[in-house]
Amino acid sequence: MVDCRLQFAGRFILIFSAVAICSTQYLYIKNKQQIMFTDFLRFQKFLMLLFLSGVLSACATVDNRRDPLESMNRVVFSFNEKLDEVVVEPVARGYQRFIPPPVRMVVGNFFSNLDDVVIAANSLLQLKFVDAMASTTRILINTTFGMLGVIDLASNISQVSDIDISKRNEDFGQTLGFYGVGSGPYLVLPLLGPSSVRDAIGIGVDSTFIHPARAIYTNLDLLTVRLPVTTVEFIDKREQLLHLDKTLEEASLDKYEFVRDAYLQRRDSLIKDDGSAPAEEEPVNFEEDEIMIDD
Questions:
Q1: pLDDT band for position 244 (50/70/90)?
Q2: Phi (first) and psi of residue 36, to 5 degrees
Q3: How far is Cα 70 from Cα 86, in angstroms, rounded to an integer?
Q4: Residue 54 and residue 190: Cα distance in Å, rounded?
Q5: Helices marked H in the chain — which ranges?
Q6: What angle do CA 259, 176, 201 make, to 5 degrees?
Q7: Is residue 281, in this structure, part of any structural domain at all?
């Protein structure tokens, strides 16, 4: 039986995440220095906290030290799967069916260019100056000559020349891991999916302080700009993962374990890419009937 203090810590972390997510859903009134929460959003926050508190009511009883909250995580995982089946996947398939590929490519390039700001900042924080310079160069080229990022000229230049300005992969969760911060327990976040305590903090920092659409241009109206942009970005990323659905369904008898182990392995690999990050306390054990995903 896992110590209930760990259960309490998990409850606090996820409730804090729910508060952070719901608190971003505010409405600006005429005086931009004041923030008004509607009664609906207050009620929404209450339901979110109530849901998470109920989910976290049972202590985890698994042997995997990297997933001590498995009982709770499986409930959230099932919730995400059902939501994806009923709402998210049908919307993503409709987006794929009715939006022409060139338009989808332009949308993906635009959001990829915004992500390069996050990548450049975290590369700099990790003292990876070459990667930071490459990502900064990508931003400059794609934002100017690529018309605000809708054309990924930087990747084309990297493919046809010896200049390596290919897209990197860095975030604040990796930055924390680079400086020796452990991943903590594995978490499945509502809507966001697989994560960990460290990566959940990283998501909060990246989205709050670094990402241009939600951090730099904070005066953008929520309902007319920020919320639609975030929604389109979410649908675009889900559409790009549609081809993996069948693979995930057929890969293992236990989809939850497969996703968890693949995620943890992938995150470990990203953090140890230069060999400077310390190893995790316990390696991920894959069952014989599971396969590994090479990204």
A1: confident
A2: -120, 125
A3: 24
A4: 14
A5: 4-23, 39-55, 70-83, 89-98, 101-125, 129-144, 153-160, 172-178, 197-205, 227-240, 245-251, 255-271
A6: 65
A7: no
Q: Environment class of residue 206 by beta-carbon count within 10 Å: exposed (0-12), middle (13-18) or buried (19+)?
A: buried
Does residue 52 belong to any structural domain of this protein? Answer: no
34: number of Cβ within 10 Å: 8
- Rounded to whole angstroms, the Cα distance separating 93 from 243 reads 11
Residue 33 structure tokens: 């220095």
Q: Which is higher by pLDDT, 217 or 62?
A: 217
**Per-residue pLDDT tens over the stretch 191-225:** 999 999 999 999 999 998 998 877 766 666 667 77
Report how far residue 126's alpha carbon sits from residue 203's, in angstroms, rounded to the nearest whole number: 16
What does pLDDT average to over the chain? 79
Boundaries of domain holding 198: 80-100+171-271
Q: For 123, what's the count of Cα atoms within 13 Å in the CB-facing half-sphere?
A: 21
Number of domains in the chain: 1
Q: What is the pLDDT of residues 134-188, one digit of tens each?
A: 999 999 999 999 999 999 999 999 999 999 999 999 999 999 999 999 999 999 9
Residue 261: inside a domain: yes
Q: Is residue 90 part of a domain?
A: yes
Q: 161: which DSSP letter?
A: S
Cα angle 63, 65, 273 (rounded to 5 degrees) comes to 135
CA dist., res. 151 & res. 106, Å (int): 7
